[in-house]
Amino acid sequence: MGLLLFDEVEVLDACGPFEVFSVANRVVARSGAQPPFEVLLVSARPEAAEDDDAAPRVRARGGLRLGADVRVDDAPTCDVVLVPGGVVDVVAANTAVLAWLQRCRPGAEVVASVCTGAFVLAAAGLLDERPVTTHWEDLDDLRTAHPDLHVVGDVRYLDHGDLATSAGISAGLDLALHLVARLESPELATATARQMDYAWRDA
């Protein structure tokens, strides 16, 4: 599972789904079974920055520093890809990121976005005629930037099997729990939401 990180990523967009998959792993591990999710944190920085240490890092919105496992140039293709939102103008024009997404797309079980991550998927040419969504504040901007897309609001997420998009910020938790249900089991998703003390809106 590849989770993209980039400068000005929205903290909950990225860390919320990470927490969902992490907690799901812990719930499974309690039963003695093998945790089902391996999350690879992929930095959008294709090369080391001067302030990078051994681990590639990004600065999320609000200044939170997040470490990644691998830079995008070295990232493998992944079975599940999740692109969070935030301030996405730079990352949506990052040719290394777009190339990685395009490499992942043919073999991925699902490529998904949270919030304005939909702009990155659109820039990579991965969205099609099926309905997509994003943060309520950015619906019109997505329609303007990509007039061929069928952009809808008033939904928490949309899952078309191989492609999924969610509304803003906290909706990424709902999408991630939905993916746990879909990829593993509804029972695990319910147990994960309960462990997180989160009122899951599975819509």
From TrEMBL:
GO annotation, biological process: regulation of DNA-templated transcription
Domain of life, source organism: Bacteria
CDD domains hit by this protein: GATase1_PfpI_2
Domain DJ-1/PfpI: from-to ranges: 3-181
Record-linked SUPFAM superfamilies: Class I glutamine amidotransferase-like
InterPro entries membership: Class_I_gatase-like, DJ-1/PfpI, INH-QAR
Name the record gives this protein: DJ-1/PfpI family protein
